[in-house]
Amino acid sequence: MSKIETTINIKITPNTIERAKKIRLMIFDVDGVLTDGRLFFGDDGQEYKAFHSKDGLGMKMLMNSGVEIAIITARKSELVKHRMDNLGIHRLYQGQSNKVPALLDIATEMKLSLEEIAYIGDDIIDLPVMVRVGLAIAVADSHNSLFKHAHWVTENKGGCGAAREACDMIMEAQNTLQPFIDKSIDTGSNIAN
Questions:
Q1: Closest residue by Cα to residue 182 from 73, 61, 13
Q2: How many whole angstroms from its chain centre is CA 136?
Q3: Which of the residues 75, 98, 107, 137 has the least number of beta carbons within 10 Å of its own beta carbon?
Q4: pLDDT tens digit sequence for 93-152
Q5: Where are the domains of the chain?
């Protein structure tokens, strides 16, 4: 069977590629990145959010390639905990209005330099982390203030495949995306998302 050749169709500067090659941990914001940022509440006050399955698969692929994943979010939600448990993501920091202490805790715990960490965000609350990490990514519909601090901007909006796009970009830079695709074709293996 012939292999499917893939190259993701995104504009990446050589500097961004070099930064992405060094990444050992990818940190995601939730609202506006893994979701479209809208919040839904039932009559009982229960919060609901929609997560894109492509983002979940991308996160699992990235973990499978050897890059760890963490979540730092300002809000606190059982729904987010449930989704992260479902994906096998255990570094979950919720209720973090100041995200820098969580970033530094994770870096210390994992013995990583900030240069080895990527972060993807969408709003002003994410800037203090973005200016500290080795690879700062903004989703396409981020607040305008993020764009001048981002090393790369996704083409997709938050909650609509932006996280997957970021995962693919890092895997492509680290030469792990094509081998993953080839293995999937050869073995028919699948990672549930």
A1: 61
A2: 11
A3: 98
A4: 999 999 999 999 999 999 999 999 999 999 999 999 999 999 999 999 999 999 999 999
A5: 30-185
d(CA 191, CA 163): 16
3-state secondary structure of 68: strand
Output DSSP code: residue 5.
P
User: pTM of the predicted model, to two decimals?
Assistant: 0.90
CATH 3.40.630.30 fits 30-185, yes or no: no
Residue 120 to residues 56, 70, 171, Cα–Cα distance (Å):
15, 11, 15
Cα separation, 165 vs 84, whole angstroms: 19
CA 57 vs. chain centroid, Å, equals 11
Confidence of residue 191 (pLDDT cuts 50, 70, 90): low
Residue 60 tokens, joined: 């699992």
